[in-house]
């Protein structure tokens, strides 16, 4: 039985209807990240699961119950928001106990749960402060604490780290991951547009675009075997290199050809059989291009060098166009230098040029 | 010759433009304070001195007699109990009207902005339309309605009128304020199990202090200064201070008592004046700040 199950739902706005029968299952204890650019519908989906937005068709099941018509408070969920959404006129303690008070939980029980959550998140010393006396990171901790005391089986996160600066974001990201491990069987559904958060946190990632699910898979699958060009381009930084070309069959197996560049594809696992002379796009991640003495693809000249500390991104070009190569941080290259690139067919992705789907 | 090396704060020079600005500001300030000054000094003079005609001069024989008379024994038509009767009438009209209209506006604004009631925009549009129609149009129909229901010419009647006519502005004010709040706050409260009233009283209302203050200023001054509703709906027993003031100024036998008229006017203007002085501090406070983004 799934912890959360979204069955054939549609959401009607004033003029448009989105999702058109979207279905998705979330396993108990799973950490699922809904990833996509803004406007892709990930937050709408989360709000529909929370019951904050009515669906026009389909069903939502949580914990084996059909909660399609239930109020948000009766769905056994807790939610953390991007803007923290702390009640500004209440202390941290009151913020955290508000929901329990509404549910008429006995006082000692409220105190116990607030204390536990505060200790877990190390905010015990902040309990009597007001939200405006807290820093951004502390506020988000309190918001997580408020969700925690609800003892819910399902946690919903709506871009919880997007308002924080880079360092705090990293810290809290680790903390959320640790929290998920400590809570054990809690299902977490996490919406973000940040691919790093998605890659680091998720057991499974759901990539969305234009209210449609593009791919569901483990971070590794999403990264190494993207289902289409959108997923390939959206996940990974620097972005995957896309090279337009076509497939030629030479008798000894298919070969990718793009002008001077040629790549025999005998290490590549096709999901569907390619036709000869089919127009395709070859996707190769910057770190899968190697600088070699004698390479498959010669005569590249260095355009721009971007040292990032741990690694270096090199923009280089040949007559066909420009490629990004990620290599070790200690490499010394200057613009204008010549280099050869090595490439392994097992590490590339091939997409049909017309549909953008993986081949 | 020594040249000054530019460093530190730039020296301020009095330019022609600056003199012009000051001249304009001083003139504008005088324009608005002079009538007030004349009112105050006249109200503090005995009639003999007023007859001399130095309207700007400080009183030679300072006296508060005119104020006392205006408050307690000036004639408003046939009765001679001063403007104090009108003052207390106005207070009795003001307090329930202000509280009820703000409460109704806040609840309306809250329901329209956050609960997305079906047809909320249409409702709101109709309500706003009400604000734009000159209210003289409503006077006669309302008089008919109230006399049919039997509450015409009573305190209740005038309070209902003030609440109704305050509703569009109050609703607009609170709707816009609540729309400006992060919607996530409302969502969080719903997940925490708050219902319509709990969220309103426990979450939204405590955040509304700045708007309540603004609304109170608008309503207190508006209702206190009202003349036509008071005259039309309040009935003889409950005529507000503005109507009484008009009666005092117009019911003169023999010599016109300028000092009493001025004192009565000052007394009638006192409440809005106090409201502005007291509320200034609250006006600028942003209560929601800090609760949302860091």
Automatic annotation (TrEMBL), chain A:
<dbReference type="InterPro" id="IPR003593">
    <property type="entry name" value="AAA+_ATPase"/>
</dbReference>
<dbReference type="InterPro" id="IPR003439">
    <property type="entry name" value="ABC_transporter-like_ATP-bd"/>
</dbReference>
<dbReference type="InterPro" id="IPR008995">
    <property type="entry name" value="Mo/tungstate-bd_C_term_dom"/>
</dbReference>
<dbReference type="GO" id="GO:0005524">
    <property type="term" value="F:ATP binding"/>
</dbReference>
<keyword id="KW-0762">Sugar transport</keyword>
<protein>
    <submittedName>
        <fullName>Multiple sugar transport system ATP-binding protein</fullName>
    </submittedName>
</protein>
<keyword id="KW-0813">Transport</keyword>
<keyword id="KW-0547">Nucleotide-binding</keyword>
<dbReference type="InterPro" id="IPR012340">
    <property type="entry name" value="NA-bd_OB-fold"/>
</dbReference>
<dbReference type="Pfam" id="PF00005">
    <property type="entry name" value="ABC_tran"/>
</dbReference>
<dbReference type="Pfam" id="PF17912">
    <property type="entry name" value="OB_MalK"/>
</dbReference>
<dbReference type="InterPro" id="IPR015855">
    <property type="entry name" value="ABC_transpr_MalK-like"/>
</dbReference>
<dbReference type="InterPro" id="IPR047641">
    <property type="entry name" value="ABC_transpr_MalK/UgpC-like"/>
</dbReference>
<dbReference type="InterPro" id="IPR040582">
    <property type="entry name" value="OB_MalK-like"/>
</dbReference>
<feature type="domain" description="ABC transporter">
    <location>
        <begin position="4"/>
        <end position="235"/>
    </location>
</feature>
<dbReference type="InterPro" id="IPR027417">
    <property type="entry name" value="P-loop_NTPase"/>
</dbReference>
<comment type="similarity">
    <text>Belongs to the ABC transporter superfamily.</text>
</comment>
<dbReference type="GO" id="GO:0140359">
    <property type="term" value="F:ABC-type transporter activity"/>
</dbReference>
<keyword id="KW-0067">ATP-binding</keyword>
<dbReference type="InterPro" id="IPR017871">
    <property type="entry name" value="ABC_transporter-like_CS"/>
</dbReference>
<dbReference type="GO" id="GO:0008643">
    <property type="term" value="P:carbohydrate transport"/>
</dbReference>
<dbReference type="GO" id="GO:0016887">
    <property type="term" value="F:ATP hydrolysis activity"/>
</dbReference>
From TrEMBL, chain B:
<feature type="transmembrane region" description="Helical">
    <location>
        <begin position="21"/>
        <end position="40"/>
    </location>
</feature>
<dbReference type="Pfam" id="PF00528">
    <property type="entry name" value="BPD_transp_1"/>
</dbReference>
<feature type="domain" description="ABC transmembrane type-1">
    <location>
        <begin position="87"/>
        <end position="279"/>
    </location>
</feature>
<keyword id="KW-0812">Transmembrane</keyword>
<dbReference type="GO" id="GO:0005886">
    <property type="term" value="C:plasma membrane"/>
</dbReference>
<comment type="similarity">
    <text>Belongs to the binding-protein-dependent transport system permease family.</text>
</comment>
<protein>
    <submittedName>
        <fullName>Glucose/mannose transport system permease protein</fullName>
    </submittedName>
</protein>
<dbReference type="InterPro" id="IPR035906">
    <property type="entry name" value="MetI-like_sf"/>
</dbReference>
<keyword id="KW-1133">Transmembrane helix</keyword>
<feature type="transmembrane region" description="Helical">
    <location>
        <begin position="122"/>
        <end position="139"/>
    </location>
</feature>
<feature type="transmembrane region" description="Helical">
    <location>
        <begin position="195"/>
        <end position="218"/>
    </location>
</feature>
<feature type="transmembrane region" description="Helical">
    <location>
        <begin position="93"/>
        <end position="115"/>
    </location>
</feature>
<dbReference type="GO" id="GO:0055085">
    <property type="term" value="P:transmembrane transport"/>
</dbReference>
<feature type="transmembrane region" description="Helical">
    <location>
        <begin position="151"/>
        <end position="174"/>
    </location>
</feature>
<keyword id="KW-0813">Transport</keyword>
<keyword id="KW-0472">Membrane</keyword>
<feature type="transmembrane region" description="Helical">
    <location>
        <begin position="262"/>
        <end position="284"/>
    </location>
</feature>
<dbReference type="InterPro" id="IPR000515">
    <property type="entry name" value="MetI-like"/>
</dbReference>
């Amino acid at each position: 039985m799934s912890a959360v199950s979204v069955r054939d739902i549609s959401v009607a706005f004033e003029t448009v209807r989105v999702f058109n029968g979207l279905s998705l299952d979330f396993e108990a204890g799973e950490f699922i990240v809904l990833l996509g650019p803004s406007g892709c519908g990930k937050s709408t989906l989360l709000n529909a699961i929370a019951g904050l937005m009515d669906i026009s068709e389909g069903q939502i099941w949580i914990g084996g119950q059909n909660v399609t018509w239930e109020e948000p408070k009766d769905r056994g969920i807790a939610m953390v928001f991007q803007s923290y959404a702390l009640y500004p006129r209440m202390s941290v303690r009151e913020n955290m106990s508000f929901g329990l008070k509404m549910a008429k939980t006995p006082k000692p029980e409220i105190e116990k749960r607030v204390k536990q959550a505060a200790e877990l998140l190390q905010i015990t010393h902040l309990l009597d402060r007001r939200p405006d006396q807290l820093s951004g990171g502390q506020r988000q901790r309190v918001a997580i604490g408020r969700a925690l005391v609800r003892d819910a089986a399902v946690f919903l996160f709506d871009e919880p780290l997007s308002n924080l600066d880079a360092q705090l974001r990293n810290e809290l990201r680790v903390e959320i991951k640790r929290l998920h491990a400590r809570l054990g069987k809690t299902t977490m559904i996490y919406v973000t547009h940040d691919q790093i958060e998605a890659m680091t946190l998720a057991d499974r990632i759901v990539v969305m675009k234009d209210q449609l699910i593009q791919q569901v898979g483990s971070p590794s699958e999403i990264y190494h075997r993207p289902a289409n060009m959108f997923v390939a381009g959206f996940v990974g930084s620097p972005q995957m290199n896309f090279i337009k070309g076509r497939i030629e069959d030479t008798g000894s197996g298919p070969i990718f050809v793009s002008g001077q560049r040629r790549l025999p594809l005998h290490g590549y696992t096709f999901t569907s059989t390619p036709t000869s002379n089919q127009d395709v796009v070859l996707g190769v991640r910057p770190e899968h291009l190697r600088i070699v003495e004698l390479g498959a693809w010669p005569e590249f000249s260095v355009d721009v060098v971007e040292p990032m500390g741990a690694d270096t991104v090199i923009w280089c070009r040949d007559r066909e166009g420009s490629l990004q190569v990620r290599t070790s941080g200690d490499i010394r290259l200057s613009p204008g230098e010549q280099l050869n690139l090595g490439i392994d067919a097992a590490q590339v992705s091939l997409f049909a040029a017309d549909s953008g789907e993986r081949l | 010759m020594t040249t000054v090396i530019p460093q530190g704060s730039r020296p301020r020079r009095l330019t022609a433009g600056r003199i012009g600005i000051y001249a304009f500001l001083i003139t504008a300030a005088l324009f608005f304070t002079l009538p007030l000054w004349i009112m105050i000094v006249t109200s503090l003079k005995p009639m003999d001195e007023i007859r001399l005609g130095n309207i700007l001069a400080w009183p030679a024989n300072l006296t508060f007699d005119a104020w006392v008379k205006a408050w307690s024994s000036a004639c408003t038509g046939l009765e001679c109990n001063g403007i104090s009767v009108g003052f207390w009438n106005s207070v009795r009209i003001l307090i329930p009207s202000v509280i009820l209209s703000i409460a109704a506006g806040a609840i309306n604004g809250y329901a329209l902005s956050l609960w997305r009631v079906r047809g909320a925009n249409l409702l709101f549009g109709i309500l706003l339309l009400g604000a734009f129609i000159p209210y003289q149009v409503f006077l006669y129909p309302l008089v008919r309605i109230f006399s049919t229901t039997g509450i015409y010419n009573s305190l209740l009647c005038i309070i209902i009128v003030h609440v109704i006519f305050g509703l569009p502005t109050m609703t607009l004010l609170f709707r816009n304020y609540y729309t400006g709040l992060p919607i996530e706050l409302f969502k969080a409260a719903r997940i925490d199990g708050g219902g319509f009233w709990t969220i309103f009283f426990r979450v939204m209302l405590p955040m509304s202090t700045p708007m309540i203050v603004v609304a109170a200023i608008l309503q207190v001054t508006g209702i206190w200064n009202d003349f036509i509703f008071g005259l039309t709906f309040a009935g003889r027993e409950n005529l507000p201070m503005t109507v009484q003031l008009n009666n005092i100024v117009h019911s003169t036998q023999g010599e016109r008592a300028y000092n009493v008229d001025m004192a009565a006017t000052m007394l009638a203007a006192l409440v809005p004046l106090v409201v502005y002085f007291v509320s200034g501090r609250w006006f600028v406070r942003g209560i929601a700040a800090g609760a949302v983004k860091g």
